[in-house]
């Protein structure tokens, strides 16, 4: 079985590995409860329901669902 896996890995072409990226979890180092994500053209937006904290309802943006930036808070 190991030889089969190694054989498949040895035959991988650059096309197959070009999209192989590894990201370490968690991508967001915070507790964003009940996240909702929407997309507007090429930008993704995330809003979370953090009603126990002030400021609340953070709004984040990302071009690729991995690298997030906090834009503002709604409350």
Would you give an account of this structure?
- This protein is of the alpha+beta class.
- It is built from two helices and four strands; from the N terminus they run ααββββ.
- It has helices at 2-10, 14-17; strands at residues 36-40, 43-47, 58-62, 69-73.
- The protein has a four-stranded antiparallel β-sheet, with no helix packed on it.
- The longest helix is centred in the N-terminal third of the chain and has 9 residues, at 2-10.
- It is globular.
- Residues 1-10 have low confidence and may be disordered.
Would you summarize the structure shown here?
It is built from 2 helices and 4 strands, in the order H-H-E-E-E-E.
Notable characteristics:
75 residues; single chain; alpha+beta; four-stranded antiparallel beta sheet; disordered N terminus
Structural topology:
Blueprint: H1 2-10, H2 14-17, E1 36-40, E2 43-47, E3 58-62, E4 69-73
Antiparallel strand pairs: 1-2, 2-3, 3-4
List the helices and strands in order: HHEEEE
Helix content: 10-25%
In quaternary terms, these chains amount to: single chain
Main sheet summary: 4 strands, antiparallel
- Hey, roughly how much beta strand do the residues contain? 25-35%
Low-confidence stretches: 1-10
Instruction: Tell me the radius of gyration.
Output: 19 Å
Give the helix tally: 2
Q: Given the helix and strand composition, which structural class is it? A: alpha+beta
Beta strand count: 4
Spatial shape: globular
**CA-CA gap between termini:** 56 Å
Strand adjacency order, main sheet: 1-2-3-4
Kindly state the mean pLDDT as a whole number? 77
